[in-house]
Amino acid sequence: xxxxxxxxxxxxxxxxxxxxxxxxxxxxxxxxxxxxxxxxxxxxxxxxxxxxxxxxxxxxxxxxxxxxxxxxxxxxxxxxxxxxxxxxxxxxxxxxxxxxxxxxxxxxxxxxxxxxxxxxxxxxxxxxxxxxxxxxxxxxxxxxxxxxxxxxxxxxxxxxxxxxxxxxxxxxxxxxxxxxxxxxxxxxxxxxxxxxxxxxxxxxxxxxxxxxxxxxxxxxxxxxxxxxxxxxxxxxxxxxxxxxxxxxxxxxxxxxxxxxxxxxxxxxxxxxxxxxxxxxxxxxxxxxxxxxxxxxxxxxxxxxxxxxxxxxxxxxxxxxxxxxxxxxxxxxxxxxxxxxxxxxxxxxxxxxxxxxxxxxxxxxxxxxxxxxxxxxxxxxxxxxxxxxxxxxxxxxxxxxxxxxxxxxxxxxxxxxxxxxxxxxxxxx
Length: 428
Ligand code: FES
Ligand SMILES: [Fe+2]
What we know:
There is one protein chain. The protein contains 15 helices and 21 strands. It has helices at about 20, 25-35, 160, 165-175, 195-205, 210, 220-230, 250-255, 260-265, 270-280, 280-285, 285-290, 335-350, 355-370, 410-425; strands spanning about 15, 40-45, 55-60, 60-70, 75-80, 95, 100, 105-110, 115, 140-145, 145-150, 180-190, 230-235, 240-245, 290-300, 305, 310-315, 325-330, 380-385, 390-395, 400. Helix content is about 30%, strand content about 25%. A hairpin with a 6-residue loop joins β7 and β8 (about 105-110). It folds into two domains: about 15-35 and about 165-425, Naphthalene 1,2-dioxygenase Alpha Subunit, Chain A, domain 1 (Alpha-Beta Complex); about 40-140, Rieske Iron-sulfur Protein. The two termini are about 15 Å apart. α2 (about 25-35) packs across α15 (about 410-425). The longest helix has 17 residues, at about 410-425. Strands 12-18-17-16-15-14-13-21-20 form a nine-stranded antiparallel sheet, with helices on both faces. The chain has a four-stranded antiparallel sheet with strand order 5-4-3-6, with no helix packed on it. A three-stranded antiparallel sheet has the order 2-11-10, with no helix packed on it. It is α+β, with helices and mostly antiparallel strands and about 425 residues long. Fe (ii) ion binds near residues 208 and 213.
């Protein structure tokens, strides 16, 4: 890189260089400084119910097989044959006893152990198969069914890493007696954008709603978001935005899902189910969190949760100017199948790849990347200064809290991002 990292993000992170999104040298550092050292989201336990179940995942650009072993424990291995490096798992998800490499048919157990080498019968010296299994992801932990892996063997425990984000995630996850489940395979699509653009948007940018999404989000709804909206940073790079509804708000106004297409058009059984969830919310998550009506969340570095349309998303880098976006529909595990189906339709109509809001956001990220990849503009970093210093501790809500127009969620993200790159710069 031709410039120091401190020139990319200034001290208070109010100025962020356009090269943060476009520079291949920055991207190479991100792989080591961020994706090599963070907890990265892999999937949800509901995708892996039986021994032999597996799903594909990624940690940055590294393909991962996440599986449930015959001992019912979870395993995460790099999907690359120990012989010549091919991927050994060709399906996105499924159930199997063996992963068999297509080149010379070395086969691996669902836990990643090398089981058979067809050619070894023809040679005298047998290789030690116990040393030739798939490479395991060194750390694998779950919290509330969410599965994360890390390449850093010394990383802090996942619960500590999530910290106070657990309080906000639980406001949603804890509402349902049996938790949530991921329904179906993720939608996956490619965008000509940098991985941080979707992340930043969904970490706390609710301010674009009435403008970019004006065809769908009426001005009154946006006014209500601004009036009741809270933006929280629990630790740099982690954040939550939500409306804190008045204590006397009507159930239909507070209940998750009622404002979505599924709730509106799903008919009486769906609406009754959503009201029932809300009626018991205080008992399950406490009176304060029962009043939370979430918008968007982010977990550093690249996991997003859209509460309003119940979707988990991961922004997988594919180079500085390319991102593979993964998006799962999330439903309450205890809901009847028909209600799950309606709720999933709600997700896909708004935030699947064909969803109207997703398309508008995606177009913006692509244009934003283009706008940051132009010449003669290096002296014009992007401005992140709105609301500087206005975030404060709150008597009841963990973290720093402010209005949604305060861009502190992004400043904290970029300050952590800068410090993570500084920590590995100059190291091999
Ligand atoms: S490359 Fe996998 S068996 Fe040869
Ligand atoms: Fe949006």
